[in-house]
Amino acid sequence: MSDSSDSGNFFIVDDHDIKSITYATEDKWFQQLNVNQAYSGTITEGVAGAKASLEFRGTAVGVVGIATTVQNVGPPAVQFSIDGNVIQTTTAPNNGSDNFSFVYLAQDGLDGSSSHTLGINVLNATADYPFAMDYILYLPVQGATPTASQSVITTFLPAPSGTGASQDASSSKSSAPVGAIVGGVIGGLALIVATAIAIWFVCFRRRRSTGRPYFYATSAKPGDLLDETEAKPTPYEVSAASVAPSTYGPGSQYQAGPQSTYSSAPPQAPSSAYSAPSQYAPPSGLGYGSQSGYTPSEAPVSDYSSGSGASAPLVLASGSTPRASASPNQPRSKAAEAGLLSVPQEATFHADSGVRFDANGQPIPAASSSSSANVLVPTADLSDVPPSYTPA
């Protein structure tokens, strides 16, 4: 940027000098004539995308145009370059005033030993508020002569219009903020990766630690469904055909005991030769055959139960408790599984106490000191007492 220290004979190139200025995009440039406030009465307006260039040999260069005010329209922005290097981007003001000598560019300190190319690129401009270029001036090297279309004026390089800060701010907009763009991309990628990791930890890691969230029966193993594989006991129902008819009732003299598991015939009530019921239990199967030498009331009572009779049923004595048989469908107990029930149990023996009662219910004293099992009580002393059989 020049601080107006460069002065001398400047060569001026007017906007309509198409021999010196090359308008690359002719369809985006428009010449305006009869402009009283302009140099030589002409200006050239360009819209966005318009480009132009100028070759010169000098140490300083400047571009002058017109800046005006247009309501509700953005001002034009123009980018300038020297030998392909962007040096400045200038935006015209739109502050309610008109400036017919607005300095868009003022650059000095160039190398005078070689030629330079000034590039003009209109970035933003519309037909309502275009970029209006009036002329270009440059400070030639010593001994240079202008062309026929150029004129010479003794002046100094004009100062940039407006403040230097606004010009610098306009220049700073020329380059894209590469660092900010790269940093934003990297930050966005890091945020995406962090979000994906958080989702994985919240969803998949929790599911792996707690096992499968759902249990499918098709993939179940035998150990997973213990309640389903364990055999459950079923109720044991006794059919009516398997229940034996009752052998005792109102018309029976005896109460039938449970049928022995060793006899295939149902229990039979023994016949008595007396009309009165006997107080003694009739012997069954003593091993002497069907003809016994004793009457039912005189037969000796054995202290031991005999199992030799095949036709007599086994009757449990009073006070004994029959062993309940388990249902075949009930689960076996631990003792049965261990084989403890296969050990034969000791036999329980029942003997006659020998105590007899008279008609008044009093015990009859024994006649001698001999065993009560061998005492025979006369038939006349017997009283009509019901049998002492009790159902098992």
TrEMBL record:
Write out the biased-composition intervals (Polar residues): 318-332
Which Gene3D superfamilies does its entry note?
Galactose-binding domain-like
Q: What are the start and end residues of every segment in region (Disordered)?
A: 242-392
Q: Where is the composition biased (Low complexity)?
A: 258-284
Which UniProt keywords are given for this protein, alphabetically ordered? Membrane, Transmembrane, Transmembrane helix
- Segments passing through the bilayer: 178-203
Protein name from the UniProt record: Mid2 domain-containing protein
Organism listed in the record: Lentinus tigrinus ALCF2SS1-6
